[in-house]
Design goal:
elongated; alpha+beta; single chain; Helicase, Ruva Protein, domain 3; 4-stranded antiparallel sheet; 6 helices; N-terminal domain of MutM-like DNA repair proteins; 2 domains; about 290 residues
Length: about 290
């Protein structure tokens, strides 16, 4: 699933290519991506036609394009969603679901929502130009200028929940997914099953710094692409996967100490860590 750096790459691309354009026509090729629209595809299209896209904003993994009537076009990419800016004569993508034909976009381009697995979606949020109600419960992310690290650290330390679970909790800190949680924990030398209330304030603050830094590093490289499901608005892949230290590196030597990286099951996914640099908490170790 795209995480904050990937979503931010897409947001920046939308800001460059479609802000200021007016929606001339909306074509919904499959109803599932607009399933959250109460009136269905027809109402979704009616709310957008004639509206001008006035910005491109993000909170965590959510994107929205404010409209000139105070509403917003809200997007979540899910696991395989893509927002592509394409010339109108470009061949339709195999999994094209929604097409917005635009007036005023560079080179007459159109905005396309492509989604193979269709866990993502689009919807119109009335009055949501500043902050859609659907996103209001999402916490700020470490790249947000208003992110309050001290407050977040206090909340983390006040809970007996494992630190990796807290990093993935979008109401605690947003934008962090499995990849960047593993990477930040590796950088901080903290095992993901360490409880928040067993960490010092200095440890949590250092971890949050690493969360921000790993996201900035990924953003500078266009995000992380393991396959063709994540691309930017121009269809290009990111290449931060070449710089990963923990995630997906099982059995390879830790770049810091040489110990093979270990993989364990975690919430129907995987956790990757160095057993030497990131020793598990005592309660999690198997009895000899």
């Amino acid at each position: 699933m795209p995480e904050l750096p990937e979503v931010e790459v897409v947001r920046a691309g939308l800001e460059r290519h479609v802000v200021g354009a007016t929606v001339r026509e909306v074509e919904v090729l499959h109803g599932r991506p607009v399933r959250r629209e109460p009136g269905g595809p027809a109402a979704f299209a009616a709310a957008l036609v004639g509206r001008t896209l006035t910005g491109a904003r993000r909170r965590g993994k959510f994107l929205w394009l404010p409209l000139d009537d105070g509403a917003a076009l809200l997007a979540h990419l899910g696991m395989s969603g893509q927002l592509l800016v394409q010339p109108p004569d470009a061949a339709a993508e195999r999994h094209l679901r929604v097409r917005l034909r635009l007036d005023g976009a560079a080179d007459g381009r159109e905005l396309r929502f492509v989604d193979q697995r269709m866990f993502g979606g689009l919807s119109v949020s009335p009055g949501g130009a500043e902050l859609p109600a659907e996103v209001a419960h999402i916490a700020l992310d470490p790249l947000d200028p208003a992110f309050a690290a001290l407050d977040v650290a206090a909340r983390i330390r006040g809970r007996s929940v494992a630190i990796k679970r807290q990093l993935l909790d979008q109401t605690v800190v947003s934008g962090v997914g499995n990849i960047y949680a593993d990477e930040a924990l590796w950088r901080a030398r903290i095992h993901g099953e360490r409880r928040g209330d067993r960490l010092t304030r200095a440890q949590v603050l250092e971890l949050l710094v690493h969360v921000r830094e790993v996201m900035e590093d990924a953003l500078a490289q266009g995000g992380t692409s393991f396959d063709a499901l994540y691309v930017n608005v121009n269809g290009e892949s990111g290449y931060f996967d070449r710089s990963l230290d923990a995630y997906g590196q099982q059995d390879r030597p830790c770049r810091r100490c040489g110990t093979p990286i270990r993989r364990t099951s975690f919430m129907n996914r995987s956790s990757h860590f160095c057993p030497s640099c990131q020793p598990p908490p005592r309660a999690s170790r198997r009895p000899r």
